[in-house]
């Protein structure tokens, strides 16, 4: 993934063959090749390719494709599956019709005319026959597994929380990527955190692949079922939370002031935590663009950041403790010892205590401790992303649900400086003209923080692809068209005059190059500036705007080179 690849190598790749669509009723994004391989295997596609060039009337091919189309349209529509499960007689008629059509193909075989070709047709017909039998068997297997799942899981949660219906399964087939592979077998919506370990244990007993899901706003496909016998455990009902609580955290220095924290269950929407912090005069640092839809459990699993990460880091930096269920259906409570109340890489050591409990949540099994050098988390100069993606084995965070299900957590919240102004910096022309200005602004702000205490409390960069996707309205009157890139930043400090001076200097630096800067002072005006950044969470428009949706870390001085390279790939490979 991280191996350097020359841009010319990507651009020289041969174009894909045309995506043939002869299978009827295929309203999905799957090509004929993908469908045939899923139903008949690679050998089935090889046979079809050979026989395609030897067609005479094409009637046999059409009948065979109709068989595959009937199977496919049912498999890809949970409502049809439910209907046929409820009507065995109708299901039998469908299977009989499929076999009849295949038999008609058999009647048209001509072994005496071309024995070699007939052998291939016979092999293909056998594969289709097996596919029909598997299709018929699938219904019996699904019905039996549903009965067993209802019996096993019904002891662990309310029956209404066990959802086999088409609507629930359709709603959980994808996330913000809109990538669709398989529908989940069942969706579970537990009422309480206490139910989680038992449900995981029950799903293991049933042999189901477990997928945790919150708001479904992720871009990495972590909540997408890849096998039919999967269960999505939706945590959105786990929405208990506290207001800001002053707590003594484990490992605090004697006499240190209590730390402001908020406890939340995994299904709490991110914006609710931010609102609770604001009510008490604090700031919640985790601020992804999807804050109004994402859940905090996903923020932990993805190590979410946002515009405030430049000051306080990502979820990793702001967690005091969290609770999760492991793949062994054990409870795991992770507690940060001696939290430095800032970015984790600034601490000499990051110590975590891991306490494991049985599924009952009471029987203590063992205690472990992770002692990690702080500097291993991020390279020097890296703003918010982490260098060690594995986080030295720290459970839960940035594992996307692969090592367990987050159920609750306690967050550290922060005090914002007294005065804040927001800048919007629009850069026009080539990226290479804008980047030196951005580097100069960054260096100036870092120096100013040491000099006067005025700091960069929030930062977000949007390039022209995002700007087009969200319908950005250019603020500049002297430049035409969309900017090449836009920077939004919060500049904060406890002295109003210093904040005003620094903000004006940042705008001056932008104006001296190929940019133009604008300042928002009132809370209302500042929210309007940040609104464009929030609009990038408009999934349907955003993800289709460009081919590569990247989330990478690059040296700031090389951002222009990177931007131009990505644009070239998008244009030449589209």
Give an overview in words:
- It is built from 19 helices and 15 strands.
- It is α+β, with helices and mostly antiparallel strands and 574 residues long.
- The protein folds into four domains: 133 residues, no CATH class; 78 residues, Uridine Diphospho-n-acetylenolpyruvylglucosamine Reductase, domain 2, CATH 3.30.43; 162 residues, Uridine Diphospho-n-acetylenolpyruvylglucosamine Reductase, domain 3 (2-Layer Sandwich), CATH 3.30.465; 155 residues, Alpha-Beta Plaits (2-Layer Sandwich), CATH 3.30.70.2190.
- Helix 3 packs antiparallel against helix 7, helix 14 runs antiparallel to helix 16 and helix 14 packs antiparallel against helix 19.
- The two termini are 21 Å apart.
- The N terminus is likely disordered.
Q: Report the C-alpha radius of gyration, rounded.
A: 28 Å
Q: How many helices in DSSP terms?
A: 19
* Class by alpha and beta content: alpha+beta
Q: Can you summarize the main beta sheet?
A: 7 strands, antiparallel
The largest beta-sheet arranges its strands as 5-6-11-7-8-9-10
Query: How many domains, in number, for the residues?
Result: 4
CA-to-CA gap between the ends?
A: 21 Å
CATH T-level fold name of the largest domain: Uridine Diphospho-n-acetylenolpyruvylglucosamine Reductase, domain 3
The appropriate CATH architecture of the largest domain is 2-Layer Sandwich
Number of strands: 15
CATH class of the largest domain: Alpha Beta
The global form is globular
| Overall pLDDT level | 89
User: What percent strand?
Assistant: 15-25%
Proportion of helical residues: 25-40%
Low-confidence stretches: 1-5, 10-17, 539-550
